[in-house]
């Protein structure tokens, strides 16, 4: 579903990604871990071209991501993204947050978009919040709304960049539960997270990044039991 080849990204003199190759199969859940500054967010942002790479290619379901224009907007809709900060539209209701893009980009009627949106809000457990503004919801509810908003575009894959890092601890579980449900339903997912419990239980594969490179990659049981690189051992020593 996602095929990354030879991805390079520099910011001035700093190389954020070097020669990154990554394949994510349909229905696979890949958890990306690694120290701060290792390039995890840059990788996610290159996967839907919020950031343009200096070299390399990204293919989504066989189609190379175009540099710009309508074709990019269409392909970008295939890859839903959820950020640490929930990025909801503050002056729109939760329901409107979910219906705007499907009406504009997918051409749904308001009735279709609202029917979809209510079903998705029920699925993430916040159907009763549909007519509220984001600020009236808890952080965990806002992040679940952000996930539902991404799903409203019917993406082929979902990217999560530290989706629980900004949440109060008591709200982390409800967001991870929604993500676990999505994984069980077969969604293709790339998840950057420091939640090692989620990585162990839900990931099909764990990818460890350091200094802009994928240093190692394996099943959670392989990776956590016997990391092969010093950098991964050092990182796990700090987070586990
Ligand atoms: P991570 O998500 O793993 O913490 P990032 O992908 O955010 O890492 O960043 C990787 C490196 O690239 C860091 O050194 C960061 O400072 C740098 N970087 C990221 N985005 C920018 C930017 N827009 N401008 C300059 N440097 C950036
Ligand atoms: Mg980051």
Automatic annotation (TrEMBL):
Chief place of localization: membrane
A GO term from the CC aspect: plasma membrane
SUPFAM superfamilies: P-loop containing nucleoside triphosphate hydrolases
Domain ABC transporter per the UniProt entry, residue ranges: 2-236
Molecular-function GO terms, alphabetical: ATP binding; ATP hydrolysis activity; ATPase-coupled polar amino acid-transporter activity
Similarity annotation: Belongs to the ABC transporter superfamily.
Name of the protein in its database record: ABC-type polar-amino-acid transporter
Classification lineage: Bacteria, Bacillati, Actinomycetota, Actinomycetes, Streptosporangiales
């Amino acid at each position: 579903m996602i095929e990354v080849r030879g991805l390079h990204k520099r910011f001035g003199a700093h190389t954020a990604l070097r020669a990154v190759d990554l394949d994510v199969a349909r229905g696979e859940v890949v958890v990306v871990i690694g120290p701060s500054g290792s390039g995890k967010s840059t990788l996610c942002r290159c996967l839907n071209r919020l950031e343009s790479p200096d070299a390399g290619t990204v293919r989504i379901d066989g189609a190379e991501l175009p540099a710009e224009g309508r074709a990019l907007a269409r392909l970008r809709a295939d890859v839903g993204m959820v950020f640490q900060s929930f990025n909801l539209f503050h002056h729109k209701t939760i329901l409107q947050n979910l219906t705007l893009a499907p009406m504009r980009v997918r051409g749904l009627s308001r009735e279709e978009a609202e029917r979809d949106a209510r079903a998705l809000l029920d699925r993430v457990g916040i159907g009763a919040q549909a007519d509220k503004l984001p600020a009236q919801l808890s952080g965990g509810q806002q992040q679940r709304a952000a996930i539902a908003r991404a799903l409203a575009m019917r993406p082929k894959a979902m990217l999560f960049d530290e989706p629980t890092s900004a949440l109060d601890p008591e709200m982390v579980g409800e967001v991870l539960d929604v993500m676990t449900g999505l994984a069980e339903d077969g969604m293709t997912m790339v998840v950057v997270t420091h939640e090692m419990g989620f990585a162990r239980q839900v990931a099909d594969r764990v990818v460890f990044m350091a200094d802009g490179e994928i240093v190692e990659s394996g099943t959670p049981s392989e990776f956590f039991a016997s990391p092969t690189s010093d950098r991964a051992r050092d990182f796990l020593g700090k987070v586990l």
